Amino acid sequence: MHIEVISNVNEAQSERFTHRTAIVIDVLRATSTIVAALEAGAAGIVPVETVLEARALQTGGNLIAGERFCRKIPGFDLGNSPEEFTADNVLGRRIVLTTTNGTRAIHKAMRADHVLVGSLNNAAACARTALELRRDIVLLCAGSHDEFALEDGLCAGLLISELQQLSPSPLEMNDIGSAMLGLYKSAGTAIHEMLQSSTTGKRLNKNGSGRDIERCSQVNISGIVPRMQGDMLVQS
């Protein structure tokens, strides 16, 4: 099995996903939020790229949620903080979500046979599901403003580590994958500190969202694996 890591959404050409399983990573915060929403009992998450698309789908009891530049979009029901997606807010509801980078990355990965959502929170469960699908794997780091984001690279490295532990045979990976595995191993127990010091982490702290960093930095606290079915992410 081969694993390819793509460093940011701008590098994600559609042909790189054909006949593969894609795992989309946006640790701070879209993919962490999607995991939290499904864990809280949301019926599903419809990822869309634009604010206009989200507003157009504010029908039939759908909630609309999202952010631009780490801030909740005015007039939306929810932002992009995992702490907002509680059972009281989302149980049984369908959520239309748009974010600066994460939902765009999900749409970039749609050419894949299977699209999963990965985060530090659900890495082990996500790796297990990806192996069961028996396809080569592409890890798409959403990044930030079309550039590499440290937190997504750390998560890619964690996912590769989990895949290595679970796979019955050796895994091949591209050079970025090897580098991200090394980055994760070098982090040790300092993942939270590394997220705090990342560009996105600093921006979230400045906006008063420091608690989100703590939540998003926790490793393997969830067994939820979001998976695209049609136009919606549901629990696989």
Automatic annotation (TrEMBL):
Its EC number is 3.1.3.71. Keywords: Hydrolase, Magnesium. It comes from the Bacteria. It catalyses: (2R)-O-phospho-3-sulfolactate + H2O = (2R)-3-sulfolactate + phosphate. SUPFAM superfamilies: ComB-like (SSF142823). It holds the Pfam family 2-ph_phosp. InterPro entries: ComB-like (IPR005238), ComB-like_sf (IPR036702). Its cofactor is Mg(2+). It is an enzyme of class 3 (hydrolase). Belongs to the ComB family. This is Probable 2-phosphosulfolactate phosphatase. The gene is comB.
